[in-house]
Amino acid sequence: MIDLDIRDGIAEVVLNAPAKLNALSGEALGELSQAYDDAGAAGVRALLLRGEGRAFCAGRDLTGVSPENDDARTYLVDALRPLLKKMAEFPVPTFAAAHGACLGVGLGLLAVTDVVYVADDAKIGSPFANLGAALDSGGHWLFTERLGPQRTLDLIYTAELMSGADAVAGGLFSRAVAPTELLAKTRAAVAKAASGPTQAFAASKELVGQIRDHRMGYWDALDAENEVQVQLSKTPDYAEGFTAFLAKRKPVFRG
């Protein structure tokens, strides 16, 4: 279900259940969590998350689940939330290449990934009105934060889906890419990040998270940013960057 390939300092995590549009069962969430653990233990410098087949992830795998036996708390609270937190806190740059259906849990996986490139024709939204359920996996936060309350409730009430191009135009994700170019462009971005100053990237990732989660004002963010820069000025990558700049050559960062 979950494949992990590590080479050249890059982890590629693949949702590989195309017959189910990569819908995730509780067991699959455990496999995905283990893949991130293994990638972290290997000391990778960047990570790419993607899905095989016609979709990135259509949400939760409801095979064998009925209203009578559904243990939503175990799935959402005990399994999904820890996974999303682990993904959000992964210490190096993370990217996702998203195509086809990106719904429910799939949307949550994208919400906690640093940079998301989506296919122009990807399908993104909240189909939960058709199930008598609420948008989950952090979708309310993602939509409200980036699209605003009215657009969020419009998507929830109508169950209409946005295209990847519309989602990017609305500020939901980073870039919209032609479907045939999506994986190549995302892999190129991942490779570039992997060769960069990963300590500086980690510091920026943490700072952006603080600004987002604690609603830091300008001056508080400036103070935190200054402290980050002071600490980075003592690292080998900082010295290499300056030396390479003065020598007019490409830097070689070690991370």
What's the number of domains?
2
* CATH architecture call of the largest domain: Alpha-Beta Complex
CATH class of the largest domain: Alpha Beta
Adjacency order of strands in the biggest sheet: 1-2-3-4-6-9
Helix/strand order, N-terminal first: EEHEHEEHEEHHEHEHHHH
From the N-terminal CA to the C-terminal CA, the straight-line distance is: 32 Å
- Low confidence ranges: none
Number of helices: 10
Overall pLDDT level = 95
CATH fold-level name of the largest domain:
2-enoyl-CoA Hydratase, Chain A, domain 1
The CATH homologous superfamily of the largest domain is called 2-enoyl-CoA Hydratase, Chain A, domain 1
Protein name: Enoyl-CoA hydratase/isomerase family protein
Family: Belongs to the enoyl-CoA hydratase/isomerase family.
Pfam family, one: ECH_1
Organism: Arthrobacter zhangbolii
Topology of helices and strands:
Layout: E1 2-7, E2 10-15, H1 26-41, E3 46-51, H2 72-88, E4 94-98, E5 101-103, H3 105-111, E6 115-119, E7 123-125, H4 139-147, H5 149-158, E8 161-163, H6 164-169, E9 175-177, H7 182-194, H8 198-214, H9 218-232, H10 236-247
Parallel strand pairs: 2-3, 3-4, 4-6, 5-7, 6-9
Antiparallel strand pairs: 1-2, 7-8
Helix pairs in contact: 1-2, 2-3, 4-5, 8-9
